[in-house]
């Protein structure tokens, strides 16, 4: 329960308790606190037993620690019935983010560069993904769309 309290913090708590309650009342306060903690533990254990008995025999191995999301996810990742390790190993987040960054900045990524070098037409403003924002709406041709600024919407 108090695994993260070091010796210096413990001494500080004892000194503050002696100053606040006094040396003659301190044993009574400690007894009251330990009695309260014991009652809370008994109450929580009886509540857990009531819940287990209400759930039935199918949930006899049910642990309340499994309700913690971190514990649940860790347990599910260790149990590889869903094939999550294969999915995790097949997904390269750095590569995906580099491609998205290149696409946003208007640069060609490695995949599109290899397609362009294999003979696909890659010249012109339509394939580079850039829009000429200097044209006025009156200067647009019949089949041209007005410029679209994704950042402005």
Automatic annotation (TrEMBL):
Topology of this chain in the membrane: Single-pass membrane protein
GO terms, molecular function: protein transmembrane transporter activity
Main localization of the protein described in the UniProt heading: membrane
TM helices/strands, residue ranges: none
Compositional bias annotation for Basic and acidic residues: 132-145
Gene Ontology terms describing biological process: protein transport by the Tat complex
Sequence segments annotated as region (Disordered): 102-153
Annotated GO CC locations: TAT protein transport complex
Keyword Oxidoreductase: no
InterPro entries reported in the protein's UniProt record: TatA/B/E (IPR003369), TatB (IPR018448)
Keywords of this entry: Cell membrane, Membrane, Protein transport, Translocation, Transmembrane, Transmembrane helix, Transport
Localization of this protein: Cell membrane; Membrane
Listed Gene3D superfamilies: 1.20.5.3310
Bias kind Low complexity: ranges: 111-131
Quaternary context: The Tat system comprises two distinct complexes: a TatABC complex, containing multiple copies of TatA, TatB and TatC subunits, and a separate TatA complex, containing only TatA subunits. Substrates initially bind to the TatABC complex, which probably triggers association of the separate TatA complex to form the active translocon.
Family, similarity comment: Belongs to the TatB family.
Function (record text): Part of the twin-arginine translocation (Tat) system that transports large folded proteins containing a characteristic twin-arginine motif in their signal peptide across membranes. Together with TatC, TatB is part of a receptor directly interacting with Tat signal peptides. TatB may form an oligomeric binding site that transiently accommodates folded Tat precursor proteins before their translocation.
Protein name per UniProt: Sec-independent protein translocase protein TatB
